[in-house]
Amino acid sequence: LAALAVQGLPGYRVSDMELTRSGHSYTADSLRALHAGGWTPSQIFFILGADAFAEIATWREFPSVLDGAHFVVVARPGTGLEEAAARTPVLRDRLHRTGQMLPAEGTTRVILVEARTRDVSSTMIRARLRTRQPIDDLVPTAVARHIAIHHLYGAVGELHGD
Fold this sequence. Notes:
The protein is 26% helix and 17% strand. The protein is an alpha/beta fold.
């Protein structure tokens, strides 16, 4: 799962731009749209799991896409931060650990966040929804409701069991 967070005054907000766009959604396009809206790369934080980051070298417009925002990489079960970072040694100079100050402007960073997360992926959610199985054990009720209301992941009908 990935999310775009933008830092403004007085705090942060999560962008739903990629959810509402029709057709293919590429991170590089989303970042360009945010820049056109007045956001600077140092105000944008693209949050993703270490499993997705491990494949970043295959993304459209890599490595320049990393200039458009800070990328916040969260450890995931089965994919540690070191393992994900090792897959793209060219990014070693951009790696940043939590607890260190980020530069106010200039080069964007890849911020590594060690966290204990559940082993839930968008692939698992899609598979359940495709076969009309409940997702109660994968996401909170409010998230399931949001998925249903906005028809995310190809959601159809009721998402929860009895």
